[in-house]
Amino acid sequence: MAVPKRKISRATRGSKRIHKVLTRLQLVSCTHCGSMIRPHTICKACGHYRGRQILVANNPSS
Ligand SMILES: [Zn+2]
Question: Ligand 1: distance of its center to the CA of 53 in Å?
Fold first, then answer.
């Protein structure tokens, strides 16, 4: 089994891991209801996307 020749320094170890860092979740407010949603997605709360109703509410009362 291959064994590392020398210890990896903290700087080398950190530079190898830098691309694994998680980016913060981007949120924008819905133009229709104002709830926070991810950009370029349909709003789960009101079902609107780019000013149009996409999802129809599954509510039998409405
Ligand atoms: Zn909305």
Answer: 10
